[in-house]
Amino acid sequence: MRRTTKPGIMIDTAHIPAKTEMPETFFGELKALLILGLPMALAQFIQFSIYFVDTVMLGRIGPEALAAAGLGAVVYFLFWMIGSGPVMAVTPLVAQALGADKNDRRDARKTVRMSLWVIGFMTPVLVGLLFLIEPLLMLIRPELARPATLYMMALAPGWPFALGIWSLRNFLASIGKTRVPLYIVSLTVIMNAGLNALLIFGMFGFPRLELIGAGIASSISYTLSFFMFVTYCFRDADAREYDLFENFFRPHWERLREVVRLGWPMSITTIFEGMLFNACILLMAFIGTNELAAYQVALNAASMAFMLPFGFAMGGSVRVGLAAGARNPQAVRRVGIATISICVVLIMMFAALITVVPEQLADLYLSAASEKNAAVRILMLSFLPVAAAFMLFDAVQVAANQLLRGLKDVTVPMWMTGLSYWAVGFPLSWCLGLHTELGAVGIWYGLLAGLATVAVLLGGRFYRLAWRRPDLWLSKA
């Protein structure tokens, strides 16, 4: 459509940018965040159940299988974290574009396409590096090196598909599509549990593959899930308007650079955090196999609880991105308060549960009837109270971190995270765990200190940008 304003001057009105409207009250924003964030939180919680189910089923085999899985996960999740940045960049790029113009389809399509390109570039390199890992694991726990390596090899084929799922989920969340992804993730967990039963324990005539079977089951589940998400993007009326896979092999180098530029600090931030917990796995391995197994199951329980706040924080990232794209500082503040409030309330509920019924929680992972599990159970029960304490700080830091990402503020938080975890958290874990009588529980106190530090720093950073210096992010929106 065109209209004439002056003789000889034609203006194209077929597409006039329309900013996304944001709620004008706190409770309006809280409602919007709950509608968007609840399916995201449940999907995140359920998706993590794949790892939870693997851990529970491997626990039925014995502490050795748990310890090998934990050691293999150190390397596997390092590669996962390296690839996570371009995937996480989808949220702020798509959300801010839609905040500025809710009808902008082309910009979102470019972002998703280029994020999938980056995953494709990284996959052969990172998967190839897995073949070089076993000699390094031999230096830590020789008896666990081989099974841990085989577990990683079994997980590797599903790695690009798992990241692809995350990219598509972030896109769908940015356009408000969260319910069907929740159903797909739920179906994925059910598939994984069934495949685990077949391949770990050798049910119904299938080979009993134990640890390797768990990895194969996860890879198959992620691959099938990815293609279910692709199918949904083709079939859903709203998602189909974006034509995500139209001209998929056509490059857009400027957007590719933007995805990488925004994504690499996110990857490094995730590595700083994830490798702290993985480094503590290595510290536990130096103490003993029982300590390592107990650490893994306690951390798994804490991580499981963390998934719901993390999902709402991801929803907060979408909402704050929309507000930033619409250049609405008041809405940014409302989103921030609502997101942090929800995350803190949720994590306090889980922390109370861990504190009140720790033995029942331990029963989910390790049978009390088995004598070989007795030592691991005692250690796990000593870890859980400290884990409950640091969960509060973990909720604050993940909320603040996701909010900052929605503002495209990623470099300063990266350095704050590195300082908190590696100048505070890890040194304390090393000193208290290996050089004091606290032993294994001292490692948890170091984690607590690191999380408390990063929660204060990132929370302060968001306060500064949202209330004191909105000009710093308005210039990027």
E-strand count: 2
Count of domains: 1
Strand order of the largest sheet: 1-2
* Helix content estimate: over 70%
Describe the structure.
- The protein is globular, with a radius of gyration of 23 Å.
- With 477 residues, it is mainly alpha-helical.
- A two-stranded antiparallel sheet has the order 1-2.
- Residues 1-14 have low confidence and may be disordered.
- The chain has one domain.
- A hairpin with a 2-residue loop joins strand 1 and strand 2.
- 80% of the residues lie in helices and 2% in strands.
List the helices and strands and how they pair.
Elements: E1 2-6, E2 9-12, H1 26-59, H2 63-88, H3 90-100, H4 105-129, H5 134-138, H6 142-155, H7 159-174, H8 179-200, H9 211-235, H10 237-240, H11 253-287, H12 289-325, H13 329-356, H14 358-365, H15 374-406, H16 411-434, H17 440-468, H18 471-474
Antiparallel strand pairs: 1-2
Helix pairs in contact: 1-8, 1-9, 1-12, 1-13, 2-4, 2-6, 2-7, 2-11, 2-12, 3-4, 3-7, 3-12, 4-7, 4-11, 6-9, 7-9, 8-9, 11-12, 11-16, 12-13, 12-15, 13-15, 13-17, 15-17, 16-17
Brief rundown of the structure:
By secondary structure, the chain is mostly helical. Helices cover 80% and strands 2% of the residues. Strand 1 and strand 2 form a beta hairpin.
